[in-house]
Write a structure and sequence with these properties.
Strand content: 5-15%
Bound molecules: pyridoxal-5'-phosphate
Largest sheet: 7 strands, mixed
Mean pLDDT: 87
Oligomer: single chain
CATH superfamily of the largest domain: Type I PLP-dependent aspartate aminotransferase-like (Major domain)
Structural class: alpha/beta
Number of strands: 13
Low-confidence stretches: 1-6, 499-529
Strand order of the largest sheet: 1-7-6-5-4-2-3
Distance between the termini: 46 Å
CATH class of the largest domain: Alpha Beta
CATH architecture of the largest domain: 3-Layer(aba) Sandwich
Number of domains: 3
Order of helices and strands: HHHHEHEHEHEHEHEEEEHEEHEEHHHH
Helix content: 40-55%
Length: about 525
């Protein structure tokens, strides 16, 4: 795009009067080319201002309740991150201490997940950019191990498959497509939104490289039953002479379960669990860009996938998809692990779980939602409308945006895709007062929507209005106009009656709702008529 409406940036640069305030200068009046590199330089203060102004329109990360990813860290850790911004993690010779910190993290994570390692023994694992990279690496290890076994036995090794629930995160689908493994998904059903272990085992055959269980489904935070899967799969393996292993995708649950649900057996305590991934940037409490993958022991990671770097006389195995990456996130993870310790993580996770419980009960009290998340699981509150005939969850999500909240609405995975849900992720920085505020705003959005005709009627009325406008005739003089008006009145009347009736059954419904409804519905119908 050319700089059309004002002088070129070079000219602006020449006439730029430094006494002018930034906003009186010509820089903020000019359009920078968006899709090609500008011909001339921009002064640093102007570049800073232009970009930070544009970024003001991004959402506020702290109010982004869509994401599991950390949005707050202590200022001391921010300082460490800033001081390591210019360090490339992969330069292990130059930054041996950073490498050492990563090794310590891998060991801490593996031991947290009960890997069977002796004291002083090194854990097998790697730091990654997130759970997605961790899952690619774990998947590749399973694929290669299965191929090696098949080749050794003189059996075909060209049709690998893996079994997951249909609720898996997209990274599993990516792995399957990028690395040519058939993905066999156990379908969900209404009121059961995680993988059914029995059905997963039914989908296995001699070409199955692994079954993946999720500790904290992305959809509703629920933990899958890894112990039951382990037992059923062990029986099947024994019966068929297979060696199908389990991977646990503990992207969000891996930093929750060990601290607050120690009795749930999901990790290396189960013999078939051979690898586990966790996102350091979720409940590991580090900003975006860090994940971990750990293997049960050396035999579970085929040696030919590991590249060896010799640093300071020690053998440094590396197994990653990329080469360069920032060192800050590794340092930040180490900070959190030693700063918080087991007890610190435990209190934060307890606090998140408690806030999720309170939020769940407040949302339940509104009387309009069904809760789809569980008390035990990742601290998320997933909920859907009991009656979405007039307005749906997407409209609630849109409405909440007006108050600054990002609360996503999305549909469940197959075969429960007819269920739409809203999801609030409760993170460390989501306080009780924010939870109270959110509930107030959900109520406001509901009142606003109740006062509006249903989405369908709005769409029909708008279409008819547009048509009559095009034909330049008054709405009431066309047949479709009259019909639309009548249908609109009918629906408003019906929905008012239905809501009134509903309120007498749901004692949680506020009485004022009926009034607001009536008032706004009338107002709206007047507008249309
Ligand atoms: C269960 C699960 N697996 C994997 C991922 C991908 O994780 P990352 O964003 O760390 O790559 C997510 C992200 O939400 C997830 O919830």
């Amino acid at each position: 795009m050319a700089l059309t409406t004002c002088k070129s940036m070079k000219e602006v640069s020449r006439v730029h009067n430094t006494i002018d305030s930034m906003f009186a200068s010509r820089y903020v009046q000019c359009e920078l080319p968006k899709f090609e590199i500008p011909m001339h330089e921009t002064p640093k203060d102007a570049a800073y201002q232009i970009i930070s102004d544009e970024l003001m329109l991004d959402g506020n990360p702290r109010l982004n309740l869509a994401s599991f990813v950390t949005t707050w860290m202590e200022p001391e850790c921010d300082k460490l991150i800033m001081s390591a911004l210019n360090k490339n993690y992969i330069d292990m010779d130059e930054y041996p201490i950073t490498t050492e910190l990563q090794d310590r993290c891998v060991n801490m994570v593996a031991r947290l997940f009960n890997a069977p390692i002796e004291e002083g023994e090194q854990a097998v694992g790697a730091g990654t950019v997130g759970s997605s990279e961790a899952i690619m690496l774990a998947g590749l290890a399973f694929k290669r191990k299965w191929q090696n076994e098949r080749k050794a036995a003189g059996l075909p090794w060209d049709k690998p498959n893996m079994v997951t629930g249909a609720n898996v995160q997209v990274c599993w689908e990516k792995f399957a497509r990028y690395f040519e493994v058939e993905l066999r998904e156990v379908k969900l059903k209404e009121d059961y939104y995680i993988m059914d272990p029995a059905k997963a085992v039914e989908l296995c055959d001699e070409n199955t490289i692994c079954v993946c269980a999720i500790l904290g489904s992305t959809y509703n935070g629920e933990f899958e039953d890894v112990q039951l899967l382990n037992d059923l799969l062990s029986e099947k393996n024994a019966e068929k002479g297979w060696h199908i292993p389990i991977h646990v995708d503990a992207a969000s649950g891996g930093f929750i379960a060990p601290f607050i649900y120690p009795d749930i057996v999901w990790d290396f305590r189960l013999p078939l669990v051979k690898s586990i991934n966790v996102s350091g940037h979720k409940y590991g409490l580090v900003y975006a860009g860090i994940g971990w993958v750990v293997w049960r022991n050396k035999e579970d990671l085929p040696e030919e996938l590991v590249f060896h770097v010799n640093y300071l006389g020690a053998d440094q195995p590396t197994f990653t998809l990329n080469f360069s990456k920032g060192a800050s996130q590794v340092i930040a993870q180490y900070y959190q692990l030693i700063r918080l310790g087991f007890q610190g993580y435990k209190s934060i996770m307890n606090n998140c779980a408690e806030n999720a419980k309170i939020l769940t009960s407040e949302i339940e009290k509104i009387g309009r939602f069904k809760i789809l998340s569980k008390e035990i699981g990742v601290p998320v509150v997933a909920f859907s409308l009991i009656d979405s005939s007039d307005h749906d969850e997407f409209e609630i999500s849109d409405g909440l945006r007006r108050y600054g909240w990002t609360v996503p609405a999305y549909t469940m995975a197959p075969d429960a895709q007819h269920v739409t849900l809203l999801r609030v992720v409760v993170r460390e920085d989501f306080s009780r007062s924010l939870a109270d505020r959110l509930v107030t705003d959900i109520k406001r959005v509901l009142a606003y929507l109740d006062a509006r005709p249903s989405k369908l009627i709005q769409a029909v009325t708008e279409a008819v209005q547009a048509e009559s406008k095009e034909k330049a005739v008054p709405l009431a003089s066309t047949v479709s106009g009259v019909k639309a008006t009548e249908a609109f009145e009918e629906v408003v009347h019906h929905s008012r009656k239905k809501k009134h009736h509903g309120a007498s059954h749901h004692h949680h419904h506020s009485h004022s709702r009926g009034h607001t409804n009536k008032k706004h519905a009338l107002h709206k119908s007047n507008g249309v008529c």
